[in-house]
Design goal:
It is a single chain. This protein is mainly α. 48% of the residues lie in helices and 0% in strands. The longest helix has 20 residues.
Length: 86
């Protein structure tokens, strides 16, 4: 029974920390600029990279960053430019 309670407590502690880790408003403007964080789709990959760094620093063992459909070198359907050019 103690093991079950421990696992529930660990799950709660992990979930309790996530909102603070993903809140980029506390990052200095110089860091946001260094990562290339911009509003909207243009800054999506930069935001994911920054969040991945913050999660890694907090001890998360596995972090995956995804970028739209296909690879970053493949133009999305209906376009002729790769996502990284936007």
């Amino acid at each position: 029974m103690d093991g079950i309670i421990e696992s529930y407590e660990l799950g709660f502690r992990m979930q309790d920390r996530v909102p603070g880790l993903l809140d980029l408003s506390k990052e200095p403007p110089s860091v946001l600029e260094a990562y290339g964080v911009k509003p909207g789709r243009a800054g999506a990959f930069a935001r994911q990279c920054l969040m991945a760094r913050r999660l890694s620093e907090a001890g998360v063992r596995f972090v995956e960053i995804c970028q739209g459909a296909g690879t970053i070198t493949t133009p999305p359907p209906g376009t002729d430019r790769p996502l990284w050019l936007d």
